[in-house]
User: Fold this.
Amino acid sequence: MSAIPHLELSGVSLRYDEVRALEKVNLKVPVGDIVALIGANGAGKSSTLRAITGLCKVVEGEVHLNGQVINSTSVQEPAHKLVGQGVAMVPEGRHVFPYMSIKDNLLMGAYTRRDHAAIAHDLDAVCERFPRLKERFHQQGSSLSGGEQQMVAIGRALMAKPKLLLLDEPSLGIAPQIIRLIARSLVEINRNDGITIVLVEQNCRMALALSSYAYVLETGRIALEGPSKGLIDNERIKSLYLGG
Ligand code: ATP
Assistant:
């Protein structure tokens, strides 16, 4: 394992005018790991992703990607530059383009690439991973179920050939059997393709099952952290996030 974490937040605070969304958040994502970020509504999960992707400037602390500062009070790498540095995001709500075909939605993920043969190969690989998308390749995005749209959103992110994949609540509003399918595919993406994953979830059970380490956010602060296996048996986690 590399000594430099793939991603690191040190003492990160973030505000929206008067609203304090993050307070001195410390978080480490080792290369090749799946790290989960768990929390209730409004805990600051999306704000953490906004600090990482440069959508919001931090007011304190630093975000490091491969040891380089990408967000601080003096640096703010724009999101499009991070794509070139191997960061891809699967946003909450999926944002599939409704009037574009599945194929074109997926190809949008490769818009910065010029290696056409490799793009075609990667498109095949996404279809192999999600055969449902192959079956609906030429249908419009609007015709898909929530679960299928999530597959498109993940497939589109993979088309950017990321080294670090950030997922914002991939299980939200999706049927349980499709959640299982998506969970399996995330483990494969991590193990087979060697992609580091940050998994933001309210679905604590799924997040702890997939990740090796997890952070629990409460009102903008890291309230608890540890190896995911251990957190499953934590009484606080059980009562607050796993339904007793
Ligand atoms: P959810 O699961 O509901 O998306 P979250 O854990 O992702 O919640 P954030 O969206 O990061 O939480 O919100 C953290 C805090 O910042 C909350 O108090 C929220 O109300 C506030 N907040 C988020 N976005 C804005 C905004 N654009 N303007 C003002 N306050 C905001």
About this structure: The chain has ten helices and ten strands.
